[in-house]
Amino acid sequence: MSKIKSGLVGFISGVLFGAGLAVAQMTNPQKVLDFLNVTGDWDPSLALVMAGALVVSWAGYRVKARMQQPVYACDFSVPTNKQIDLRLMLGSATFGIGWGLAGLCPGPAIASLSYASFDLLIFVSAMLVGMLLAKVVIRTTS
């Protein structure tokens, strides 16, 4: 597959994903924080978004099982590591704490950049610095 076709498929997939995040209001930090506030004025609507994502993921894995090769790639990129280790737990905890404090995670934060708010730019900048620091720590400890 040509790089142009591959890039186009990636671009269209990214736009579709970003639009889905916006329609589901995952780019609205207050909506996310209201979902996470199970002891207060809880908004369960994002549970439907997550359930929908699970259904789509399940269907995708079922289709993948019947295919020998992806349509627009040389091979499938599926995680094989099934171990729960310290690195996974620390990463998950960091992700969850950040999501709970800011009401944003990486995908919705990047999709929200079009709003160009100062707070969002600070969040994305801090997220990128954190990702770079994690890479440095992983390289030095591996």
Keywords:
single chain; 142 residues; mainly alpha; globular
Characterise the protein shown here.
The chain has one domain. The mean pLDDT is 87. The chain has six helices and no strands. The protein has helices at residues 3-23, 29-36, 45-65, 86-102, 106-111, 118-141. The protein is mainly α and 142 residues long. InterPro entries: DUF6691. This is Transporter component. The chain crosses the membrane at residues 46-63, 84-102, 114-138. Keywords: Membrane, Transmembrane, Transmembrane helix.
Strand portion: under 5%
Radius of gyration using CA atoms only = 18 Å
Which outline best applies?
A: globular
Q: State the secondary-structure class.
A: mainly alpha
Compute the average pLDDT: 87
Tell me the total number of β-strands: 0
- Which consecutive residue ranges, at least 5 long each, have pLDDT under 50? none
Estimate the helix proportion, in percent: 55-70%
How many strands, which pairing sense, and closed or not: the largest β-sheet? none
Please indicate the count of domains: 1
Structure annotation, total helices: 6
Q: What series of H and E elements makes up the topology? A: HHHHHH
- Cα separation of the termini: 34 Å
Helices, strands, pairings?
Layout: H1 3-23, H2 29-36, H3 45-65, H4 86-102, H5 106-111, H6 118-141
Helix pairs in contact: 2-4
